[in-house]
Amino acid sequence: MFSSKNGFKKTFLKRVEMVCGTSFAESTERDHFQTLGNMIREYVSNDWIKTNEHYRETKGKQVYYLSIEYLLGKLLRQNLINLGIENVVQEGLGELGIDLSELEEFEADAGLGNGGLGRLAACFLDSLASLNLPGHGYGIRYKHGLFEQKIVDGYQVELPEQWLRSGNVWEIRKADLAVKIPFWGKVEAKMENGRLQFQHLNAETITAVPHDMPVVGYNTDTVNTLRLWNAEPSQFPIHHDILRYKRETESVSEFLYPDDTHDEGKILRLKQQYFLVSASLQSIIKSYRQQHGNLAQLHEYVCIHINDTHPVLAIPELMRILIDEESFEWDEAWNITKNTISYTNHTTLTEALEKWPLRIFRPLLPRIYMIVEEINERFCKELWERYPGDWDRIAKVAIIADDQVKMAHLAIVGSFSVNGVAKLHTEILKNREMSQFYQLFPEKFNNKTNGIAHRRWLLKANPKLSGLISETIGTNWTQAPNELVRLSEYENNTSFLERLAKIKKDNKERLADVIHEKTGVAVDTNSIFDVQVKRLHAYKRQLLNVLHIMYLYNQIKEDSSFSMVPRVFIFGAKASPGYYYAKKIIKLINTVAEKVNHDPKVGDRMKVIFMENYRVSLAEKIFPAADVSEQISTASKEASGTGNMKFMINGALTVGTLDGANIEIRELVGDSNIFTFGLTADEVLHHYQHGGYQSLEYYHHDWRIRQAVDQLVNGFFPGVYNEFEPIFDSLLEENDQYFVLKDFASYVDIQKVIGNTFMDPIKWQKMSLANIANAGYFSSDRTIQEYADDIWGIK
Ligand code: 26V
User: Fold this and answer.
1) Which ligand 1 atom sits nearest the alpha carbon of residue 308?
2) Is the pLDDT of residue 238 over 70?
3) Where does the record place the modification N6-(pyridoxal phosphate)lysine (predicted)?
4) Could you say which of 119, 540, 567, 742 is catalytic?
5) Could you give all domains of the chain from N- to C-terminal order, each with its CATH number?
6) Sign of the torsion formed by the C-alpha atoms of 697, 700, 701 and 704
7) How high does pLDDT run on average in the chain?
8) What integer pLDDT is reported at residue 257 of this predicted model?
9) Candidates 15, 310, 534, 766; catalytic one
10) If exposure means fewest CB atoms within 10 Å of the residue's CB, which of 106, 279, 525, 561 is most exposed?
11) Quick one: pLDDT at residue 298?
12) Using a 6 Å cutoff on CB, does residue 447 contact ligand 1?
């Protein structure tokens, strides 16, 4: 149905009637989207079935990626590209008077994630399928993804997101494969045949119904599966208060949690975690059993990867299945479990490490709790033998301590592999945050530097640049991203550099149109497009960016001889709804924007844009249009970052601290093709340990800082009164935990260098090219191949 344009057109016309029940003449654009989506899913289903048959028959090792988040974005065009039918469809539709890019607007972003962690999971799925690897995703089918952000009077307002409003064309509901998940109740132990048997009584069960989505590889027949679980009431027994029961069960897959900054909903979040884990394990073990029978060799054929600690209950759940249902002895069960589970850590921020109070954990998951307790006791006993009397050490690494379950400790103890997501991050894990564990299990720790799906973030998002690349070095780079290095040969080819510049300009025009449409502000595309898009967090230091903008504004106002290269500062960021400080920063950005954008004295020298509702589909329009990529986290805090890689592959130059993957970007492009500044991670960590930083000194000694910081509270922004006092206080009263003022001067300096460099277009384009040419390393194809070789052992 997609092999020729005419064949496609014929089928499409017939299908509009069948799928939508209307004549083509009467049909709407949404009908066309639905029809096309259905056709693609059907087209894929043959390979989907074959892929599964192949996996069943060859009985090779499979990896199951468990993640509480998947930030998929839209799938229509990516699927067309991966299937190699984009042109047939685009041209066929065109002849029917239908614009493919308009149809794309009818697909909602699948936004089942907060940020980098969820997007990484989505990029990994693409690479697994494209590399023909047997890897499948498991997640939750949240009814509402990450909230939709509106900006009202400069403030963030959250609306429930509704991606399923018109259904999800890609999913297939598999009601037959539903499983039950028990909560609450109590556990009874009985002796049976000389063995303790545990029974979970009076549990409330929730049914998990799988909704499968095909994961189509690029230019291959492999179609893997993303299985998302929906929470539904179990049919029996009929509940005494059926409506309340229905509401409560369905709430388990109702919302994605935008971090758990606030306490409410904690139980629900733990329920979600066990729901995902228990449903996925039941499904994994069922299919394993069909192929291999006995579970004793599970770890030879199955790897279960947990994306951060959210699915860490996979460890006690697998123990429960092996012991309670399969009658394994503890030691053998533990051996199988430890060798089946691998774990990725995504942050070293202590406030972000998951800990569950026993008062919540124990009653909700009584049998699982018993097993965690046993794991902890055995682990502590081993420690006691190794370090007799060293209570301090034992208390530090215990899985249960201070009436809490420490999920990261459980993950490290119960897995065979623990990886960080960039070189620096892994070193900090090994030598600082998790050093006690590293001493115990050095063989478990390894690094897997993050990557991005270059076929989404370059091939799909930036068709013009992709076209130029393919014209220049051929199309192999789409499957062998390291081929991009061949572009380096063109670094002295002026006409090539000019074409690069022209493409950037076109992409900036495209974004300028979006900005104008959404904000009403006209931006000059000759300016530097300086972009910071990412979740709003104190450690990511959007505030440093804003203070620099305020400084520039003050210069424009007060120093008539001040000159600067025109800039458009672009922000996109969602703040967790309960994160008070982050929301203040959003208000500050919008307040500064309001003032700057309407000041005639500023004119086109500077504009500040806050783009509402930052999400995958908007990101795809922003990255290709960026000149400067802001990666300015406090060194040591950003585990990796992946936006930095998306900018790089689209030719933006990084201004960044020596943090996360920025360090590896610098290693690849060389010091002369990146703008670094600020404290190093060692310096930051040294200050945390030994003090020695007084933010007040920087405030008093640098008039630029004093002026901008004072403006937060002295009425400079009319009508906001004490709105920004908390920000002022964080910098001065609380001694600036994130070293914003300490890094300010070096940030201002490097920004000046950036402006000067931009004035030399050939030099700029050369630097930009060096970034594109060296970005192949950051393809998630490379990352996934490393996971497959070093951790999972899959082919
Ligand atoms: C969560 C929270 C929640 C409570 C308040 C503080 C806080 C701080 C950080 C986080 C993030 C948790 C895990 C996470 O999303 N990590 C991100 O993972 C990306 C993919 O590996 C990586 O690129 C980012 O650097 C890392 O922040």
Assistant:
1) 13
2) no
3) 646
4) 540
5) 59-74+109-450+785-792 (3.40.50.2000), 454-778 (3.40.50.2000)
6) positive
7) 96
8) 87
9) 534
10) 561
11) 98
12) no
Single out the residue of 365, 359, 405 nearest to residue 183, CA to CA: 365
Question: Which carries the bigger pLDDT value, residue 710 or residue 265?
Answer: 710
Expressed in angstroms and rounded, the spacing between residue 480 Cα and the centre of ligand 1 is 29
Query: 118 CB under 6 A from ligand 1?
Result: no
190 is catalytic: no
- Atom 2 (ligand 1) nearest CA: 352
Q: How far is 354 from 375, CA to CA, in rounded Å?
A: 18
Active-site annotation holds for 587: no
Query: What pLDDT, on a 0 to 100 scale, did the predictor assign at position 352?
Result: 87
- State if residue 120 touches ligand 1 by the CB under 6 angstroms criterion: yes
Q: Is the CB of 421 under 6 A from ligand 1?
A: yes
Spatial distance between the Cα atoms of 598 and 579, rounded to a whole number of angstroms: 29
Render pLDDT for 4-16 as a digit per residue (tens, 0 to 9).
Answer: 999 999 999 999 9
**Distance in Å, CA 305 to ligand 1 centroid:** 18
pLDDT for residue 239: 63
**Is position 460 annotated as part of the catalytic site?**
no
pLDDT at 263: 58
**Catalytic annotation present for 642:** yes
Three-state DSSP class for residue 36: helix
Catalytic residue, from 143, 211, 508, 646: name it.
646
Strand 567-572 relative to strand 528-533: parallel, antiparallel, unpaired? parallel
pLDDT, residue 266, reads 85
Check if 535 is active-site: yes
What is the mean pLDDT of the segment spanning 595-612? Answer: 98
pLDDT over 70 (residue 443) = yes
Cα(336)–Cα(297) distance, integer angstroms: 7
| Distant-in-sequence, close-in-space partners of 625: CB < 8 Å, separation ≥ 6 | 504, 507, 508, 510, 511, 512, 529, 531
Q: Is the pLDDT of residue 591 over 90?
A: yes
Closest ligand 1 atom to the C-alpha of 641?
Answer: 23
Distances (CA, A) of 635 to 548, 654, 735, 744: 18, 15, 17, 14
Please give the Cα distance from 438 to 435 (Å, whole number): 5
3-state secondary structure of 305: strand
Beta bridge partners of 193: none
pLDDT at 242: 82
* Active-site residue identified among 35, 347, 642, 654: 642
3-state secondary structure 51-89: HHHHHHHHCCCEEEEECCCEEEECCHHHHHHHHCCHHHH
Mean pLDDT of the 635-651 span: 98
> Residues 369-389: pLDDT tens digits?
999 999 999 999 999 999 999
- Cβ contact 123:451 at 8 Å: yes
Which of the listed residues 71, 117, 665, 737 should we mutate to test ligand 1's pocket, taking the one with most ligand atoms within 8 A of CB?
Answer: 117
Residue with tokens 């700029």: 764
Tracing tokens 């300096």 back to the chain, one arrives at 749
